[in-house]
Design goal:
about 200 residues; Glyco_trans_11; Rossmann fold
């Protein structure tokens, strides 16, 4: 996400207008006016957003169905383990998915991952129907995650920005460290609760 070529392809704004894309954006971007200003700068390239919408239109077969994106960052698993960090377990995803199913009868779970479909299924709970984003570029993955109605995120800055760009409910894993400290989520330290009340921390 920090590569300048990537940013120019994804977003319509010129490169020199874009902020550094990391989790710890400036405090002004956590204010309502700052968020809207940043969202205007981070407007997706027309071709990318058109393709992302077309992808969702192809999979949504029921009228008035809800799309819930799930992002899985799998390839950094060894690094996280060495650093004493937790990858959200299947129980977290199950609880998050059941939350959305309790709100709506027709939900499509759209999975984007940096692993194979088999690897992704092994990290997700059984008993749910998934739609996997196949053979897309990272730009397209981000756009699809952003335009779904809601999103469940896992780990990493890609997940965080997908959640930030998504305008629905974002569910994130409550714990960060292996000691399951209640206050250990790194996201809690970045996001003022009064500005991110649509972000819901969830346990497993």
């Amino acid at each position: 996400m920090n590569d300048s070529k990537t940013e120019m392809v994804i977003f319509a704004s010129p490169r020199d207008k874009l902020p550094a894309l990391s989790i710890a954006v400036g405090a002004e971007y956590h204010q309502p006016a700052g968020q809207e200003s940043l969202r205007k700068e981070l407007t997706f390239n027309k071709d990318i957003i058109t393709s992302a919408r077309h992808f969702l239109e192809q999979i949504i077969l029921k009228p008035n169905a809800i799309t819930v994106a799930i992002h899985l960052r799998l390839k950094d698993k060894i690094y996280w383990q060495q650093a004493g960090l937790i990858f959200p377990p299947p129980g977290y995803f199950r609880k998050a998915m059941e939350y959305f199913l309790s709100r709506d009868n027709h939900v499509y779970f759209v999975v984007s991952s940096d692993g194979t479909n088999t690897e992704s299924r092994n990290r997700l709970p059984s008993g749910f129907d998934y739609v996997f984003v196949h053979d897309k570029t990272p730009y397209m993955d981000l756009a699809i995650l952003a335009i779904c109605d809601h999103i469940i995120i896992s780990r990493g800055t890609f997940s965080w920005w997908a959640g930030w760009l998504n305008r629905g409910i974002t569910i994130y894993y409550k714990y960060n460290h292996l000691n399951y400290n209640e206050s250990s989520s790194v996201l809690d330290s970045y996001m003022p609760k009064d500005k991110y009340n649509h972000w819901i921390p969830m346990r497993h």
